[in-house]
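Page 47, continued from p. 46.
Same chain as before, 83 aa.
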Amino acid sequence: MKDGERTGRPKEVVIDKNIKKIHKMILNDRKLKLNGISGTLKIFTQHVHHIIHEYLGMRKLCAKWVPRELTFDQKQRRIDDSV
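Result:
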């Protein structure tokens, strides 16, 4: 037995296309919320959370998404931008 093709969303949402879209959205606006991203891409918030934390290696810091491990130059740039 085989299932025929059907319309609708694919079961797998953790794909390169979605990862790239989420990364681009975060780089454009680091203050985005998970609900905003999931509403735009029409995928579950849990999937967005998983992609951001596991695939992009980012976390929320002071209401902004930042990489978990910043280089010295990135840290310095953040300090210079906040002044």
